[in-house]
Amino acid sequence: MKHVVTGAFGYSGSYIARRLLEAGADVITLTNSPRKADSPNIPTYPLTFGDSLVDSLYGVDVLYNTYWVRFNHQKFNHQSAVENTLQLFEAAKIAGVRRIVHVSITNPDESSPFEYFRGKGLLERALIASGLSYAILRPAVLFGGEDVLINNIAWLLRHLPAFGVFGDGSYRLQPIHVDDMACLAVEQAFNRDNLIVNAIGPETFTYLQLVKTLRDILGLRRPILHVTPEIGYQAGKVIGALMGDVTITREEIGGLMADLLCVDAPPTGSTRLTDWARTNHATLGTRYASELARR
Ligand SMILES: NC(=O)c1ccc[n+]([C@@H]2O[C@H](COP(=O)([O-])OP(=O)(O)OC[C@H]3O[C@@H](n4cnc5c(N)ncnc54)[C@H](OP(=O)(O)O)[C@@H]3O)[C@@H](O)[C@H]2O)c1
Question: Which of 66, 115, 295 to mutate to test the pocket of ligand 1 (most atoms within 8 A of CB)?
């Protein structure tokens, strides 16, 4: 079987590609990122959304789609990510791809006030209607390796005299280790059923608990303050400007506070964030993870 992974030199795509290669599979990638020193050595095609996409997908059995953009920016936005993903599904159908393993998010919803969740909802519906065989994975938040959110909470805890939690911090998250999600993705490639799986880890934290847990594991004594979402956003904006990045958006704060990174479902990942953070406490958050630097 031939597998194509979007973004095999990126974050989750690299873990999926590695698992496939370890299983002896034939893997190619669609990406615009340069290969990193430790990247898997696999044939690479540009992730461009036009006629060449069908050519890149001929002979492929399974497409793992991780493509998405995290926020709206002058160079990319959710609307074009939706249009591009629809083209990718269409190209896969024309090329005769047998199955798509599509990475979505917890609680996607076409009527959500948040564009991220709306776009993901629309894409899930389009994939289901496409007639292609599919597995949709819905992660809440990924951790491990080069993750952004958990790493940057740790980075902020290390570098600021105090940490600001948006509101009361009672909204929840169910982080899954990136390699547990990769394992799930590869398993689903060999399943024939159409299905939707919540990709969540074994621990559920409130945001406040998560920040306190990371602070304690890092051995820090930073006070945790409750701030309004707007003050938190403005503080994030200043930090983003200093780091040449977008640290957090109003929409991300809104989705988090609306409890959208939590579902009522059994865990599908087994790695506990607390165990992983204890094992990696010496390096966790020592470097800021920049979304824009990756682009
Ligand atoms: N990371 C999380 O915590 C998290 C949480 C919930 C859901 N998800 C979902 O999981 C999937 C994978 O996320 P990830 O964090 O692993 O993503 P990623 O590696 O940063 O990117 C995945 C793919 O999207 C492309 N991409 C990302 N941002 C782009 C931009 N601004 N312009 C053009 N292409 C862009 C990358 O292109 P290149 O190959 O050219 O780099 C790559 O092919 C996404 O669908 C995301 O919505 C992630």
Answer: 66
Q: Sketch out the chain's domains with CATH numbers.
A: 2-143+174-199 (3.40.50.720), 149-172+203-294 (3.90.25)
State the amino acid at position 263 in one-letter form: V
For residue range 142-173, list pLDDT tens digits in order: 999 999 999 999 999 999 999 999 999 999 99
β-pair partners for 68: none
Average pLDDT over every residue of 183-187? 98
Task: Provide the pLDDT for residue 51.
Answer: 84
| Phi, psi for residue 205 in degrees, rounded to 5 | -120, 145
Give dist(CA 85, CA 116) in Å, integer. Answer: 13
Q: How far apart are the CA of 81 and the centre of ligand 1, in A?
A: 10
Give the strand pairing for 205-206 and 172-173.
Answer: antiparallel
Q: What is the distance between the alpha carbons of residues 110 and 167, in angstroms, rounded to a whole number?
A: 26
pLDDT at 183 over 90: yes
Distance CA 257, CA 22 (A): 39
Query: Looking at ligand 1, which residue's alpha carbon is closest to its atom 46?
Result: 68
